[in-house]
Structures are given as structure tokens and as C-alpha cells.
Amino acid sequence: MNTKRVYIDFLNDIFDSNEKIEQFIEGMDYNQFEKDEKTSFAVIRAFEIIGEAAKEIPDEIKEKLKSKSVILQKWVLPLLSP
């Protein structure tokens, strides 16, 4: 089954990856994070997923989202900007 993904799917990827990053690094300081190869690899991969998803969201959707939410403005939209 080849299902075409829509922008909401990519937004969900961004939110899911953000949640995973928060879970992975919870309770860690930078030195612990830096020494934990599995965690740092997982966090880097989650950021890659966010970047890949951000590229798939149409510009007109990004523009509509700018005025909708402080959270989106502060955290998501900067990730969507080139």
C-alpha cells in the first residue's frame, strides 16, 4: 500500500521527534549526553527526521501556522525556515 503523506503527517513527525528528544535527554547534563553514544546518536537522528519533515511542509501552510500558535512560532517554525 502506497499512501501519500500530507503536511499533517510531517507535523506529527516533528512533534513526535521532539518528544523523543525530550525523553532521551531527560535528567542528563551535557557531559553525560556527550559520553552516551547511543543517546547522542538517537537525538541527532531525531533532529534529522525533524529537518526532513520540515522540508516537506508547503510554504503556504507554514505561513498559515505563523499566526496560529505561540508554540509553533517559538519552536516549530524556526525549524521550518531555511
How would you describe the overall organization of this protein?
The protein has one domain. 78% of the residues lie in helices and 0% in strands. The protein has helices at 7-25, 30-35, 37-56, 59-66, 70-80. The longest helix has 20 residues, at 37-56.
Number of strands: 0
Q: What's the end-to-end separation, in Å? A: 32 Å
Structural class: mainly alpha
Radius of gyration: 14 Å
Give the percentage of residues in beta strands: under 5%
The number of distinct helices, counting runs of at least 4 residues, comes to 5
Largest sheet: none
Fold topology:
Blueprint: H1 7-25, H2 30-35, H3 37-56, H4 59-66, H5 70-80
Helix pairs in contact: 1-3
List keywords for this structure.
single chain; globular; mainly alpha; 5 helices; 78% helix; 82 residues
